[in-house]
Amino acid sequence: MTGLFTLFYKEILRFWKVSLQTILSPLVTTLLYLLIFSHVLEAHVHVYPGIAYTAFLVPGLVMMAMLQNAFANSSSSLIQSKMNGSIVFVLLPPLAYWEFFTAYVAASVVRGVVVGLGVGLAGLWFSAIPLAHPLWMMAFALLGCATLGAAGIVSSLWAEGYDQMAAVQNFIIVPLTFLSGVFYSIHSLPPFWQAVSRFNPFFYLIDGFRYGFFGVSDVSPGLGLSIVAACFLALSLATLLLLKSGYKLRK
Amino acid sequence: MIPAIEIRQLHKRFGSVHALCGVDLNVEQGEFFALLGPNGAGKSTLINILAGLARADSGQIKVLGHDVRADYRQARRSIGVVPQELVYDAFFTVREMLRFQSGYFGIRGNDAWIDELLENLGLSDKAKTPVRTLSGGMKRRVLVAQALVHKPPVIVLDEPTAGVDVELRQNLWEFIRRLNRQGHTIVLTTHYLEEAEALCNRVAMMKQGKIIALDTTANLLNSLGSIQVRLKLNPARLPESLNYLLITQDDRVFKLSLNHLAELETVLRTLREAGATVEELDVTKPDLEDVFLKLVQA
Questions:
Q1: Which of A139, B119, B223, B298 has its CA 20 to 30 A from that of A88?
Q2: For testing contact with chain A, the best of B91, B128, B149, B154 (most A CBs within 10 A)
Q3: SS3 assignment, position B32
Q4: Which fold has domain B5-221?
Q5: What CA–CA distance (Å, rounded) separates B63 from B74?
Q6: Domain boundaries, chain B
């Protein structure tokens, strides 16, 4: 297991060395969302009874930041090493495909959680937030980060350049996170868009994560967690199969 | 004894290009072996398959008896590869890179060997320097250190001295020779044929995915005769009776291959009788480059 732990540690050190870009920058961006949306909408929007809009917003933004950064961690690390050729340093040693997967996903979870913690703690300055079910909150947070870490691996394996990688980020990941109920409850949407939202796995992540804080959710947390776990398992299986086959890594 | 490298009927295609066409090759333990060939001959493809960076379409390839696919962990532990491209990870220092590489091979607490590698490769004062800030030659040294960090019994160097200054080249070869004396098997690809000639006991020459020559360096050199004579003639015409000795002709310069120096007198007499004037004359021993050119141009 030394190989797996070394790769995991290397991935942690990689984002830590550029923490201005990988931690502080997303933290500031997310806090700007919080500052602007809470200021503009606080007096006009009430999603759940008895919960201020700013308090409602904080968990959603925390989850959004976690998901985007977990994705960015594995995808940027892999696409960079693919493009500059340093991927050979992990292809030459006797690392198994599942060790490769575990190390990259675990490092993505760590980065997601670090950024999420930062946003959450800063969010407390804007509004007091209850913590009704911490275990549900943690389950959704960890599964969400792990799913996006795996998605980052698949995307960077497929992408043949930075342009394709940016396309996945900008045209798939960002829209799915923004349209997942970070800023609203899907019950405020017309029925058609409510139905569409239920096909977005990010919706269950945000909704379930928020349940951990408020004990209120749009769908049952058990159903949400099952769907998220199924997505994680399916994506992990696909990623492991791709890594085992050497897809776009071993010619 | 199990061969260091055993290759049987190895085939690899990239689309319509048949990069390797049934290569068979054994490299014995302790050999200093050269793999030569023009660009596109298939050398790097062969090395990539050996290292697990590429996969063969068919055939078998083993490192110290370990199949590179079925028993990949043992095969990769047995081999250290210096890649041809000058690659590096922009985030880390030299020592960090070497510690990571040790860890990937399952080795903890490898600092004593890392220090020895740094010293032997003239990198001791660069241990804390980010690799991205090093010169090209220094980056090449780091790549060599990374390949050796797990003390592999088989070491493959794919063009290790490309773009490297003379001093480093000599230091590097001195170090690699020492490793070879200690029992490591060395496989080398290089464009500097004089390096292969000076270092290697055995040479394989590749062309269009096939091995076209495989012999000891001495036998390959003897195959062109024991000496070569370079003559600049006026007029630029070689008597027909000497054509069987001709290796190459470049304008008025003729390169002939002789088995004995005594044959030179016969050559000069024939030229005199034919009315040709010898304007320049050099006598040299054939080098690997001559063998290489002869085989590649055949």
A1: B119
A2: B91
A3: strand
A4: Rossmann fold (3.40.50)
A5: 8
A6: 5-221, 225-297
